[in-house]
Amino acid sequence: MSKQTKFLLNENQMPRFWYNLQADLPKPLPPVLHPGTLQPIGPADLAPLFPMALIMQEVSLEREIEIPEPVREVYRLWRPAPLFRAHRLEKALGTPAKIYYKYEGVSPAGSHKPNTAVPQAFFNQQEGVKRLVTETGAGQWGTSLAFAGSLFGLAVEVFQVRVSYDQKPYRRAVMHTYGARCVASPSGETEFGRSVLAKNPDHPGSLGIAISEAVELAVQREDTKYALGSVLNHVLLHQTIIGLEAMEQMQMTGDWPDVVVGCTGGGSNFAGIAFPFIGHGLRGGAKPRIVAVEPAACPSLTRGKYAYDFGDTAGMTPLTKMHTLGSQFTPPGFHAGGLRYHGMAPLVSHCKELGLLEAVSYNQVECFEAGVLFGRNEGIVPAPEANHAVKGAIEEALRCKREGKAETILFNLCGHGHFDMSAYEKYFAGELTDEHYDESELAMALAGLPSVPQPA
Ligand SMILES: *Cc1c(COP(=O)(O)O)cnc(C)c1O
Hints:
The protein has 18 helices and 15 strands.
């Protein structure tokens, strides 16, 4: 029998609904709190930031939420995305395990991010919004929102974390090409940005600071809303199209995953591949092990505290309960910019607390090593973020080899690394080192977490 490598769905097999894990959770999410009153907030409190359709998705307990036809029409530009069996990687590792990967690098932006950028732009346009403001780390999210904004006729303004703005000029050029404006953060364009620069003119920036700048601008204008590329429930919801497709495709293979692996920054691509499988397990189906892989330099799930914290550095966002390194924590400037966030999606954090997933962390050099091995066998050069998932999958495959087990491993290859080649060049020159966060800064950031009275 010839070995099948690629598993494709046709356009009509693309899911018509996103999957909402909140419908199947044994325990509901802790409430989101108002930063001033510390009381649970309602949909109206979020209205200055987001259109009502997205707010309702944020709090929905319905299992299936319909994907509007105009969104499906744009999705069809690259979806359904392919699922591959990594025969060559398996052979290179000498593992009895079967390794499958879902590839999200086929989108126009080269990552999973357009899966949510497109519906976010659509729902904003439907409610008369003219301009979207956002933050971006490596530039993946900014690029994706710029793309989506151009399709739905919205102006897009992006605050890009300084260190990535300098490291990745080509992502900025792509944002410009789609018609968006991109500013390095901290910037002189907001009160908060100016206050950060006053203390440190060479501040490398962080996602937390860039979020504060974007939120500050968004609340100033009626025609402007804010868009977030990860963390929030509605973002994770949109990403479940990854796992829903992967389930269909796994059925085509005749195998079913024993382990599902994804990398976690804010948690959206991981949730995208994992939540449909977790939900299936909660409804009585098979329960694969679910493994979240994060960078050792920014380990919110493995080293963070599960506590209420702000999503941004200035303390303008509502408080959510999540695994956090503290909103005052600035992660070191390693290359997987998309994973440099102090917190974790509340839904992913909640699942960790409920024992529905495991988390591991790896350093950047070993992740690049894994990415290079993957590229040389499978042909795709992964994004530095995706290298964490590759590393996680390889470690599972090597465990199978040691234990003599022919398990099935599925991981999400969330993006390609074509705009990250300078990081690969540094790796080959031996100039890429493992970055370590400052233990005392982490301790201080954790000590500074907002104090929220424990519910009785
Ligand atoms: C943004 C990004 C990430 C991190 O964000 P998540 O919300 O955790 O998915 C990971 N990989 C790539 C390729 C990204 O662009």
